[in-house]
Design brief:
Layout lengths: L14 H24 L8 H7 L4 E2 H8 L3 H13 L3 E5 L7 E5 L1 H25 L1 H21 L8 H4 L1
Antiparallel strand pairs: 1-3, 2-3
Helix pairs in contact: 3-4, 5-6
Length: 164
């Protein structure tokens, strides 16, 4: 059984703070490097959804499930991406109830640009921490995401005893 350690007394090693900082820095990087330069209307909130559509397309329902967000949330961002001429939606040829999302020609070009930039950033990460450590970090983040997907940090998960 894993040893349970108290929260680090070193403020530099508090996990939620580190996640917050890394997210903030990545958002800043993406805003400067990716979004503003080529498509001023495109912002970091569009990025996960846009990249998840990919070059093969995806249904709105599958996209919402993939990102663990509501269909309404994906629909809102899809409409914004359609207004930017990055994404198009069309009825599935197999089932008219299903809306399929695809990148436009402009969206595909931008998608390929984004992939190159992210690959470059990952290359810099690997140089900074080493490939093995980078892969370990990715594995750890995947496990933490899975933990939160199943744990759900709801109010029900904490007892009064834990809070007091």
């Amino acid at each position: 059984m894993a040893e349970i350690r108290p929260v680090s007394e070193d403020p530099k090693r508090v996990a939620p703070k580190l996640v917050y900082l890394l997210k903030r820095f990545i958002d800043e990087w993406s805003s400067k490097k990716l979004c503003v330069v080529h498509h001023p209307g495109f912002n970091s909130a569009h990025l996960p959804l846009f990249m998840s559509i990919g070059t093969t397309g995806i249904s709105n329902n599958a996209l919402a499930a993939k990102l663990s967000v509501t269909k309404q949330a994906t629909s809102k961002i899809v409409k914004e991406l359609e207004a930017l001429n990055m994404v198009k939606s069309e009825k599935s040829p197999d089932d008219a109830r299903v809306v399929m999302l695809h990148l436009t020609e402009e969206g595909t070009k931008f998608y390929n640009y984004l992939k190159r930039q992210v690959t470059e950033l990952e290359t810099q990460y690997r140089k900074e921490v080493g490939s093995k450590n980078y892969e370990i970090a990715i594995d750890v983040m995947l496990k933490l995401v899975k933990f939160h997907e199943t744990y759900n940090c709801s109010a029900d998960s904490a007892t009064d005893k834990e809070i007091n």
